[in-house]
Write a structure and sequence with these properties.
single chain, about 260 residues, alpha+beta, 2 domains, two-stranded parallel ribbon, 11 strands, about 30% helix
C-alpha cells in the first residue's frame, strides 16, 4: 500500500509518464502474480546504492552507550569482585552496542522498484535493456503507480532519484536510496521504496513482491523496435488472457521519422 515516508518527497508531477523495461518472462510474471518485484538495494547495478551517507546516519542515531563501550581503560579497583563487576558491565555494553548496530536499517534492508521518468521513448534505453533480453516496456504514470498499490501490502514510498551529492533532508537509508552517482544521471529514475522497521526485514530475500491493481498501473505496453510481429501478437494474447485491456503496440523508433521523406 502507498504509505509515504516523511524522509521521501513525493514527485511533483503525478501525471509524469514512467517506463519500466522487463523480459517477456518478467511481463508474464507481472500479469500472473499481479505484483511488482522490489529488489534489495545491494543487488542492483550500482555498488554504492544506499551507502553514500551511511556514516552520517550512524552518527545521527548511534546511542551514547555504544561510544561508552569503546571507552578507555576501566577505573582502578581494589578487589577482584569489583573487577569482575566492571568487566561484566563492559561486556554487556558491548553486546547492546552490537545489537543496536545489527538493527540499523542500512542498504541491505531497503528494496526498490525502478522506473524511468521519460516523456518519449529513448533509443538509449532500448539499447541498454535489449542487451539483457528486456524488450517489453510497461508504461504508466507516477500517480497511477501510487494508486495501483493494494492495501495489505508493505508500506511503499515513491520518490525521484537525484544524481550526485544532493543535500538530504534526512540522512536515513530510505532518503539515501534516492541518491545515485552522477554517471547514472541519464536514467532519470523514479523509485518506489520499501524499508521495513528495525527487525522487520528478517526473513525477506533479495526480492519482495508487492500486489498492485494492474488495470490501474498498466496504461500501455510497448514492445521494442526490433521485436517480431508474432511477439507483439503474443503480448496481446497474454494481456487478453489475464483480462488486461491496455493498448499493446510496437515501438515506432524504426519507422520513418518525419524528417525522412518517404519513397513513393
Amino acid at each position: 500500500m502507498w504509505q509515504q515516508h516523511p524522509d521521501v518527497s513525493f514527485p511533483a508531477e503525478e501525471s509524469a509518464p514512467i517506463w519500466r523495461f522487463v523480459t517477456i518472462a518478467g511481463f508474464v510474471d507481472l500479469l500472473d502474480s499481479g505484483a511488482l518485484p522490489f529488489s534489495r538495494l545491494d543487488s542492483l547495478d550500482d555498488p554504492f546504492e544506499g551507502h553514500a551517507t551511511a556514516m552520517d546516519y550512524v552518527k545521527s542515531v548511534l546511542p551514547e552507550q555504544v561510544f561508552r563501550a569503546a571507552g578507555g581503560p576501566p577505573p582502578a579497583v581494589r578487589n577482584k569482585l569489583d573487577q569482575w563487576r566492571i568487566r561484566k558491565a563492559h561486556e554487556m555494553e558491548q553486546e547492546q552496542a552490537i545489537a543496536v548496530l545489527k538493527r540499523m536499517p542500512l542498504a541491505e534492508t531497503c528494496w526498490a522498484n525502478c522506473w524511468h521518468r521519460v516523456d518519449d521513448e529513448r533509443a538509449s534505453l532500448w539499447r541498454r535493456y535489449l542487451a539483457g533480453g528486456k524488450f517489453v516496456a510497461v508504461c504508466s504514470t507516477v500517480g497511477a503507480l501510487r494508486d495501483s498499490l493494494q492495501d495489505g501490502g508493505p508500506g511503499v514510498s515513491i520518490g525521484t532519484v537525484s544524481y550526485g551529492a544532493a543535500p538530504q533532508r534526512s540522512p536515513s537509508p530510505l532518503a539515501q536510496a534516492l541518491v545515485k552517482h552522477p554517471a547514472f544521471a541519464d536514467e532519470t529514475e523514479i523509485r518506489a521504496l520499501i524499508a521495513p522497521g528495525a527487525g522487520g526485514a528478517d526473513g525477506l530475500g533479495p526480492v519482495v513482491k508487492v500486489p498492485v491493481a494492474l488495470d490501474t498501473l498498466v496504461q500501455t505496453v510497448r514492445f521494442s523496435p526490433v521485436a517480431d510481429a508474432w511477439q507483439v501478437a503474443l503480448g496481446r494474447r497474454l494481456m487478453a488472457r489475464f483480462g488486461l485491456n491496455a493498448a499493446c503496440t510496437q515501438s515506432s523508433l524504426h519507422a520513418n521519422p518525419d524528417f525522412v521523406p518517404s519513397v513513393a
